[in-house]
Specification:
single chain, 197 residues, alpha+beta, Elongation Factor Tu (Ef-tu), domain 3, two-stranded antiparallel ribbon
């Protein structure tokens, strides 16, 4: 289990730290130059003074943008979990070179967990009518043999199109999954109740 914000991996920050130090140095240099020019205001013609101030202020904005970018890049050297969930097997090993787009580890949320299932398009009008009336539709997740009920949840969404090949529409249900009975990509049979039996 990993928590939101928990460190998962780190990338060597040395090059990014050096870049940040360099850009902060340039910013400090230009700030000092601005102070120096402002101090010499009385001995400088007004137009030349204003032009020099505008140039330095432009440099300061550029410097600040470079510092901000260097800080952003340095922050990316710490890979943290974006969600609370269960981490899968590592997809890289320490020492590997990681490229943009490489996946380090897959994290799946378990609580709550969603189940996406298909419903025959002929049944769709009944579901939509119940939802329109404000009904809260219970959904049950069962094992392959329909002998063990894993969990009971609620219908939370209906896709916006029918699959023309299968004649079905996707629906989504959410389950609290406090006992972790449901697991990502697990096969389950689903029962959707439209009315009390």
């Amino acid at each position: 289990m990993v928590q939101t914000g928990q460190a998962l991996a780190s990338i060597d920050p040395t090059a990014y730290q050096l870049q940040l130090t360099e850009t902060e140095g340039q910013l400090a240099h230009d700030q000092a130059q601005l102070t120096e020019v402002q101090f010499a205001k009385s001995t400088t013609p007004l137009r030349a003074f204003e032009a020099k101030i505008a140039q330095i202020e432009g440099n300061l904005k550029t410097d600040q943008a470079k510092v901000d970018d260097a800080k952003r890049r340095l922050a990316y050297t710490q890979i943290v979990s974006p969600i609370t969930g269960v981490a899968g097997l590592l997809r890289i090993d320490p020492g590997n070179i990681v490229h943009p787009g490489d996946s380090i580890v897959l994290i799946n949320q378990l609580q709550p967990i969603s189940v996406v299932f298909n419903l025959a398009e002929d049944q769709l009008p009944k579901v939509l009518a119940a939802l329109k009336d404000g009904a809260s539709l219970p959904v049950e997740a069962w094992d392959r043999t329909l002998k063990r009920r894993f969990a009971t949840g609620q219908l939370t969404g209906v896709d916006n199109q029918v699959d023309q090949v299968t004649g079905t529409v996707k629906l989504k249900a959410m389950f609290e999954n406090k006992d972790h009975a449901l697991f990502p990509n697990q096969f389950v049979n689903v029962r959707l109740a439209l009315r009390a039996e």
